[in-house]
UniProtKB/TrEMBL annotation, chain A:
The keyword Oxidoreductase applies. One of its GO terms (cellular component) is plasma membrane. C-type cytochrome. Part of the cbb3-type cytochrome c oxidase complex. FixP subunit is required for transferring electrons from donor cytochrome c via its heme groups to FixO subunit. From there, electrons are shuttled to the catalytic binuclear center of FixN subunit where oxygen reduction takes place. The complex also functions as a proton pump. Residues 108-197, 206-287 form the Cytochrome c domain. GO terms for molecular function: electron transfer activity; heme binding; iron ion binding; oxidoreductase activity. Binds 2 heme C groups per subunit. Pathway: Energy metabolism; oxidative phosphorylation. Keywords: Cell inner membrane, Cell membrane, Electron transport, Heme, Hydrogen ion transport, Ion transport, Iron, Membrane, Metal-binding, Oxidoreductase, Repeat, Respiratory chain, Transmembrane, Transmembrane helix, Transport. The lineage of its organism: Bacteria, Pseudomonadati, Pseudomonadota, Alphaproteobacteria, Hyphomicrobiales. This is Cbb3-type cytochrome c oxidase subunit. Gene3D superfamilies: 6.10.280.130, Cytochrome c-like domain (1.10.760.10). It comes from Rhizobium straminoryzae. Component of the cbb3-type cytochrome c oxidase at least composed of FixN, FixO, FixQ and FixP. InterPro entries: CcoP_N (IPR032858), CcoP_N_sf (IPR038414), Cyt_c-like_dom (IPR009056), Cyt_c-like_dom_sf (IPR036909), Cyt_C_IC (IPR008168), Cyt_c_oxidase_cbb3_su3 (IPR004678), Cytochrome_c_Oxidase_Subunit (IPR050597).
Automatic annotation (TrEMBL), chain B:
Heme b 2; high-spin binds at residue 411. It catalyses: 4 Fe(II)-[cytochrome c] + O2 + 8 H(+)(in) = 4 Fe(III)-[cytochrome c] + 2 H2O + 4 H(+)(out). It is a multi-pass membrane protein. GO terms for molecular function: cytochrome-c oxidase activity; heme binding; metal ion binding; oxidoreductase activity. The lineage of its organism: Bacteria, Pseudomonadati, Pseudomonadota, Alphaproteobacteria, Hyphomicrobiales. This is cytochrome-c oxidase. Pathway: Energy metabolism; oxidative phosphorylation. The gene is ccoN. It is an enzyme of class 7 (translocase). NCBIfam families: ccoN (TIGR00780).
Length: 291, 553
């Protein structure tokens, strides 16, 4: 091997090899590399001594500190449970009326409720509960199933058209698709429904007498003769300006021709009775606070 | 076609045989796999192999190439590889920016399944890592191994098999995602048949590298080859173990992994982090160890440092995969090992970065004037930055904040945009004039533009996501006085919007830079002035006989 030459810039010798013009200096490894190598390795070894670290067949070294992540979490959860126990008492025992009278409880309901709602309900109902097409506005306007807190609690608990055994059922039949009404009949009744919110039942009936007749025969059973809806079957009020799917002719046609069965999940199994109650109180409170 | 006529008659015959066998396999899947998406892939393989088989047939009886060829390195596969690298860069970075905008405005899809976020995201990751990065590695490795061994590739068929076969794998992967074919392992999404194909290609690659090394005319193996070898060898091992799976049937694209539960997670991240180590680090360090000293005209700062860094990285990386699974069902002792090895790993990582930067001593004026060398310098800086950040994030308590947040994505892109892509672009801009025997790139100004677009794009991207990630992490762990979480997950999503916009803009800058590179490549091949005889010898003595007259010792 040829002897290395001296690099004029750094003053170090090369290793004497060359590849396609590339040479290497024989510079010793800088001391700092060894320093950091020992420091990090020492830290690692000490950490291994203190913490769970090495496998021993079916078990492992537990470490001198006896730190166990699982137990740390279990303890933290137990601690939080204990801290919140008094508040859970309040939630479980008091009824909706006494919440409203208890500012401390209301404060907690607003805070915890906002969080629960944001994590579980906002994806469909919107972060401010103002709804989206097909997902009702819960913060304001009429609700199909009623808006007393107890009713809200029931809706949230069992859901609508969900697989909960007590689920509420909302069935808006597919009048066109299933051949219950002909195309001209559907056109007539949707014209009548379309004008209800603007003109009221009487005026709209004058403008669309055929539609009004069909409505009385086919729709009134659920939506009521006055078209103001029936909370026991979840049939919406068709005379107000709150629409779940939309109040333009095209959307009403879609609704009546193809039917609607909105799906609201049941939350009993997932959130538990206490949180369902809290959410009902939260939604009810939200509604009272809307302008 | 010159490229085909330059193969020997025997190589042409063998190429045709391989292509016909592939066409037959494709036909079988296409015909028998009716109803299954695998049939689409069968048809694709059939069409692509026939498209290559026809020109080979047309030139089957061309005369044998001149024996003059043995006096030169075999660079045709590297040239095609360089072009493919740029094509993949443009395609995959475009898809990357598209998915970035989807996170700002989720409705910007065509509405059909293929354009959903979940399918486009792996198209981007596979496209950049394997398409862009992999082709860059293969193209430069052929180039580097010949020069540093001072020997021509042992044959002309296997490099083509590796390059084309590898790209076929990438195409199967990317089209598969669009069709909904995936085994749902991050960075290892392709299904069993694509995986098997890659094994064949990769073993050929390994054998080719070994044969070249075995024939070398230099007494010693240059360090770049150590890194390339580690890349090829370990990626083979990772790929095989992580993809062990049983197909539902031989005519179905679906398979089931051998692993499940936490074992699966650990195998996946052992694979995943070593993909970072040996694909995204070792391979590109090999690239750096060749192109940086050549371009700077300086000797490597320390041979010894390069050796201890090599063994340090190789040994330490094997253990750190579990830092991707901190605070999960993975037993805590495994997390401990991942964390402590990650900390030690910082030392050899910085050793490599420092070795690169110290090599530039005496050449800093060139860094100032030459954007190509500056690409490589900045790459080394980002390599140091990313590995520091990585070791920091591997600490369990830091990871509790960073995990699941966009900080991880910021870290990845400091590595991917700042290190991997910058070193690749630097190496490509150095190789292109040498490969095509041009005086220089057609437009050095355009290289300069690319450099600044790439640097500003990376900076915008990484700063945006550092902020985003830390804000997310903090929002998810902030409690009110009453012990309720202060923010919902949706609150944190809403808070991300400005950062996602910034990220998408940063990505756009980076994409524009890559497109400038594509344009420059085209202009250089078509219009740049050919190198004069003297220039083609400097800085590289490019012909074999030429090198032989100037012995290395
Ligand atoms: C010392 C070197 C490095 C260490 C210790 C390290 C460590 C880490 C850690 C702790 C994470 C986050 C895991 C999580 O919380 O999910 C991560 C993610 C990642 N890093 Fe690094 N890193 C290093 C260097 C690099 C480099 C150079 C790249 C090159 C691009 C890179 C690419 C990635 C990728 C792609 C991920 C994302 C994995 C995913 O999809 O979740 N890392 N790394």
């Amino acid at each position: 091997m040829a002897l290395g030459e001296r690099d004029p810039v750094t003053g170090y010798l090369t290793t004497g090899h060359e590849w396609n013009g590339i040479k290497e200096l024989n510079t010793p490894v800088p001391r700092i590399v060894y320093v950091f190598l020992s420091l990090t390795t020492t830290f690692g070894l000490i950490y291994w001594l203190l913490m769970p670290a090495l496998p021993l067949g079916t078990t492992y070294t537990k470490g001198l500190l006896g730190y166990d992540e699982r137990r740390v979490v279990e303890r933290a959860v137990a601690h939080a449970e204990a801290e919140r126990a008094p508040w859970h008492e309040v939630l479980d025992r008091q009824d909706f009326a006494s919440f409203a009278a208890d500012p401390a409880a209301m404060q907690e309901i607003r805070e915890a409720g906002r969080l629960l709602f944001g994590q579980n309900c906002a994806a469909c109902h919107g972060i401010h509960a103002t709804g989206n097409t097909g997902f009702p506005n819960l913060a304001a306007g009429a609700l199909n199933w009623g808006d007393r807190p107890e009713v809200l609690q029931q809706t949230i608990r069992v859901g609508v058209n969900s697989d909960h055994p007590e689920s509420r059922t909302a069935q808006m039949p597919a009048f066109g698709q299933d051949g219950i009404l002909s195309r001209p009949e559907v056109d007539a009744v949707i014209a009548y429904v379309h004008d209800l919110s603007r003109d009221g039942t009487a005026v709209s009936a004058l403008a669309h007498p055929a539609g009004a007749r069909i409505f009385a025969a086919q729709c009134a059973a659920c939506h009521g003769a006055d078209a103001r809806g029936k909370a026991d079957v979840g049939a919406p009020n068709l005379t107000d300006t709150t629409w779940l799917y939309g109040g333009d002719l095209q959307t009403i046609f879609q609704t009546v021709w193809y039917g609607r069965q909105g799906h609201m999940p049941s939350w009993e199994a997932r959130l538990g009775a206490r949180n369902v109650k809290l959410l009902a109180a939260y939604v009810a409170d939200l509604r009272t606070r809307q302008p | 076609m010159d490229v085909i006529s330059n193969l020997t008659m025997d190589e042409r015959r063998r190429a045709l045989l391989i292509l016909l066998v592939m066409a037959l396999v494709g036909l079988t899947f296409a015909a028998a796999g009716h109803g299954d998406p695998i049939a689409v892939h069968g048809a694709l393989v059939l069409v692509l192999s026939l498209a290559l088989a026809f020109p080979v047939m047309g030139h089957l009886y061309d005369p044998e190439p001149s024996i003059e060829r043995f006096n030169a390195y075999y660079d045709d596969p590297s040239k095609v590889g360089v072009i493919l690298t740029f094509v993949w860069a443009a395609f995959a970075m475009f898809v990357g920016d598209w998915v970035a905008w989807l996170m700002v405005e989720p409705t910007w899809t065509t509405g059909s399944a293929w354009s959903s976020f979940g399918r486009l995201r792996p198209v981007h990751t596979t496209g950049v890592i394997f398409g862009f990065g992999g082709n860059g590695l293969i193209a430069t490795s052929f180039y580097v191994m010949q020069r540093t061994c001072r020997v021509r590739l042992p044959d002309q068929l296997s490099p083509w098999f590796v390059l084309i076969g590898y790209n076929l794998f990438c195409i199967l992967a990317v089209t598969g995602y669009l069709l909904g074919i995936t085994q749902s392992k991050e960075y290892a999404e392709p299904e069993w048949y694509a995986d098997l194909w890659l094994v064949i290609v990769w073993v050929t690659y390994f054998v080719l590298y070994m044969r070249t090394l075995a024939r070398r005319e230099e007494p010693h193996i240059y360090v770049a080859n150590w890194y390339y070898m580690a890349f090829i060898l370990v990626v083979a091992m990772l790929h095989i173990v992580n993809n062990l799976a049983v197909p539902v049937s031989f005519l179905s694209a679906k398979s089931h992994s051998l692993f499940s539960g936490v074992q699966d997670a650990l195998t996946e991240w052992w694979y995943g982090h070593n993909a970072v180590a040996f694909f995204l680090t070792a391979g590109f360090l090999g690239m750096m160890y060749y192109y940086l000293p050549i371009r700077a005209g300086r000797p490597i700062f320390s041979y010894r440092l390069s050796i201890i860094s090599f063994w340090g990285i190789t040994f330490m990386y094997m253990w750190v995969g579990s830092h991707h699974l901190h605070h999960t069902a993975l037993p805590q002792w495994v997390q401990t090992l991942g964390m402590t090895f990650s900390l030690v790993l910082l030392v050899p990582s910085w050793g490599s970065a420092a070795n690169a930067l110290l090599t530039l001593n005496g050449a800093w004026h060139k860094v100032r004037d030459d954007a190509t060398l500056r690409f490589m310098m900045i790459a080394a800086v980002f390599y140091g930055l990313t590995t520091f950040e990585g070791s920091f994030m591997a600490i369990r308590s830091v990871n509790a904040l960073s995990h699941y947040t966009d900080w991880t994505v910021g870290h990845v892109h400091a590595g991917a945009l700042g290190w991997v892509a910058m070193i690749t672009f630097g190496a490509l801009y150095a190789s292109i004039p040498w490969l095509w025997k041009r005086e220089r790139m057609y437009s050095p100004a355009l290289v300069e533009v690319h450099f600044w677009l790439a640097l500003s794009g990376t900076a915008v991207y990484v700063f945006a996501l550092w902020n985003a990630g830390i804000i997310q992490g903090l929002m998810w762990r902030t409690y009110t006085e009453n012990g309720n979480l202060a923010y919902t997950f949706l609150d944190s999503v809403v808070a991300m919007r400005p950062y996602y916009i910034a990220r998408a803009l940063g990505g756009l800058l980076y994409l524009l830079g890559a497109l400038a590179g594509c344009l420059n490549l085209y202009l250089t091949i078509r219009f740049a002035a050919p190198a004069t005889e003297a220039a083609s010898r400097k800085p590289l003595r490019d012909g074999l006989d030429d090198a032989a007259t100037q012995p290395a010792e």
